[in-house]
Design goal:
305 residues; alpha/beta; 8-stranded parallel beta barrel; 10 helices; 45% helix; 13% strand
């Protein structure tokens, strides 16, 4: 290699290292940076608010019940200016959104045109949450089914998420992949590996605590995923109901009344020094009395930190 090519090659390597460093020096090695206090604000999914009220009054209600934030779906049919006005008048935060299309148009669909539609949708979600003043888009990374093999899904999902990185960089918004019942990335070691293969500071994990209880223990996942976790979803699950009444029946239990070992879960959150800042409820919705109960139960869980 001549001197000119050597200098050019060295410069490219240095640039690549600069991009990789924020993620790889901490998350990829699983190390836990020292010392900021772990705090969690409370949020809930917008669909949980079951009272028939104008948007601004829904936001105010949630704030009055002790929540700090609301998680919207995006893209949405709601008017963005109305959302922003309701946010300002209520004092509520909009820290994250859930992409609306990742199930019906998954990133692992065999049809490239379908994948492109999902990528376009996620790009819009990234811009939406930036406009809302948040920092994270929840994204299901793909689906394994009778038409899509596990290996095919893994490779296609990697490629699709990588296609989203320029949009994340342009907006400065995080893409957080969620563990759901999609028959994909169903062990913490594999979930860790998937994010590490992407190796970008704006791609991590949106860890759903309750979804794991079907086939694992959330405290184990939290310790393995470590600094890859960007945000946390909270729900409960009962293996007893699952075994006796059916798989989906396991979710029909209130927070603190299922199989989550909340002291251990929160201990794991504390030990990895999680700095995502939010705990968002994704449970059955209801009126103000129901949501107040959810808020109080979340307070008790956060108290275990």
């Amino acid at each position: 290699m001549n001197r000119k090519n050597f200098i050019k090659s060295a410069g490219l390597m240095a640039g690549a290292a600069a991009v990789a460093t924020p993620f790889s020096t901490s998350a990829a090695r699983g190390s836990t940076p020292s010392a900021a206090k772990v705090t969690l604000k409370k949020s809930l999914g917008f669909g949980m608010i079951k009272e028939d009220l104008p948007l601004v009054d829904k936001f105010k209600l949630v704030r009055d019940l002790g929540f700090d934030g609301i998680e919207l779906n995006s893209p949405t049919d709601m008017d963005k200016s109305e959302i922003l006005a309701a946010k300002e008048k209520s004092g509520i935060e909009l820290p994250s959104v859930v992409n609306s299309d990742h199930w019906k148009k998954p990133l692992t669909d065999p049809d490239p045109a379908v994948r492109k539609e999902c990528i376009k949708s996620v790009a819009q979600s990234l811009q939406d949450v930036k406009d809302f003043g948040g920092d994270t888009v929840l994204l299901v990374p793909g689906v394994v089914n009778e038409k899509v093999s596990y290996e095919q899904a893994y490779n296609t999902a990697l490629d699709s998420v990588r296609e989203l990185i320029p949009y994340a960089e342009e907006t400065g918004i995080q893409i957080a992949l969620e563990n759901v019942w999609n028959n994909f990335l169903i062990s913490p070691v594999e979930a860790k590996r998937f994010v590490d293969e992407i190796n970008h500071p704006l791609v991590g994990w949106y860890f759903d605590i309750g979804n794991i209880l079907r086939y694992g223990w959330p405290e184990h996942w939290i310790k393995t995923l470590n600094r890859r976790i960007m945000k946390l979803h909270i729900k409960e699950y009962s293996r007893k109901l699952m075994n006796e009444e059916g798989l989906w029946e396991g979710f029909k239990v209130k927070l603190l009344e299922g199989d989550n070992n909340w002291p251990e879960v929160m201990k794991a959150v504390r030990e990895i020094n999680h700095q995502g800042g939010w705990l968002t409820a994704e449970v059955s919705g209801g009126d103000r009395e129901h949501l107040k109960d959810v808020s109080l139960r979340m307070d008790k869980i956060i108290g275990y930190l």
